[in-house]
Every structure is written in C-alpha cells, then in structure tokens.
Amino acid sequence: MPPTGTQFMQGIAERGIPDQWQRLGWVLAYDGAISTHLVRAVQEAHESGSAEARDAALRLFDEKQDNLAEARQFIASKLGEYDASERWAKLDAVIREVDMDQLVDELRPHFGFHPFPIVLESFKFNINYIREHGFRTFYTMTDDYLTEIEKMTREGRAAFEAREGEQHFPPFWLFKLDLNSIEVPTHCDICRLAITYAERALEDAEQAG
C-alpha cells in the first residue's frame, strides 16, 4: 500500500529528500533567484550606463546558463543510470497506485495557503503526467522545457549586449525572460515531491519484501 500524505510528510521530516533529487531541486529553484537578481542588474546597467553594472549583468547571464546546464547534465546522467537499472518501470508502478485526491488533501495544510495553491496544482499535474507517460518521459519533457529556457536566456543576453529596446524599460525580452524563469521553480523544483514519493515508497517496499 503506498504511503498516505501524512506518512509522506513524516518521511520527509525524518529522512529529507533523497540527496540526488534535492540537488536538482535546488539548482532549478536557483534559476528563479538568478533571474530576480538579473532583472535588477539589467535595470542598474540601464540607469547608470556604467561598465561595471554591465559586466555584473553579463556575469549573471552566464551564471544562469551554467546553472541550467548543470540541471540538464544531471537529468541526462539520471536517464542513463535508471535506464540501466530498469528503475523507471518500478517507480511508475508506485505512482499508479496513489490515491491522488487523498494525497493532495493531506498535503493541503502544508502547501495550500493561497487560493490557487501552485505547489499542489503543479504536483497534481506532475503525478497525472507521470501516470499517463511515465517518469522517464516526464524527465525528457523537463529537459525539453529547460532547453527552451536556455534558448531564451541566450537570446536575452544577445539582446542586452546589442542594447535593444533601451528606450523602454523594462524591454519585453527581459519581462519575458523573468516571468518564464521564475516559473521554473514552480514546475521543476516541485517535481522533487513526485520523485521523492515514488523513491521512498519503492525503497520501503523493497526493504519490507
């Protein structure tokens, strides 16, 4: 029998998130944080016109691209590792047994403060997507998504270097990059919940069996 939401939260409190997936979550949460600093740096460069402010913004563009590359490298390595061990199918089997409504109701006291609780809504999407397509496809979809964020970041850097849209602030490319980047954690950091649920349930079943 899969863990209830209460058991799941207790497990996280006692054992945390598996280290490998915790690292991925932190990297992807950081993308939104970098974006916030990047917007302020671009604004400073726009207002001051100083070379120092411009260099600071360019460093943040590079840091953002490096951070996304780290996440994508992790996903690539995990795809290969779990392909070799055939673990994806076992994780998929766990998720198919989940009582989704019960699980979300039990998580709501922890993550349901806003009228539209993004953590819970993203979690529900992730679980439903995985049930339909499987964990492996979920992570290849995630990689495709991050590829688009990488592309947008490169295009933003090029626009910044070309000083496009300088007469208006914020330029549209920055607005677009910022909103899309701060959305990354609401999808990719929250995916720690789904994989942790499945990993812990599988580990407990293997130990009990």
Defining traits:
single chain; 9 helices; 209 residues; mainly alpha; 0% strand
Topology:
Elements: H1 5-15, H2 19-48, H3 51-85, H4 87-96, H5 100-111, H6 118-133, H7 135-162, H8 172-189, H9 191-208
Helix pairs in contact: 2-3, 2-8, 2-9, 3-7, 4-9, 5-6, 6-7, 7-8
Radius of gyration: 20 Å
Shape: elongated
Outline the low-pLDDT stretches: none
Query: How confident is the prediction overall: mean pLDDT?
Result: 92
How many strands, which pairing sense, and closed or not: the largest β-sheet? none
The quaternary organization reads as single chain
What is the overall number of helices? 9
Order of helices and strands: HHHHHHHHH
What is the number of E strands? 0
Beta content: under 5%
User: Percent helix among the residues?
Assistant: over 70%
Distance between the termini: 12 Å
What structural class results from the helix and strand content? mainly alpha
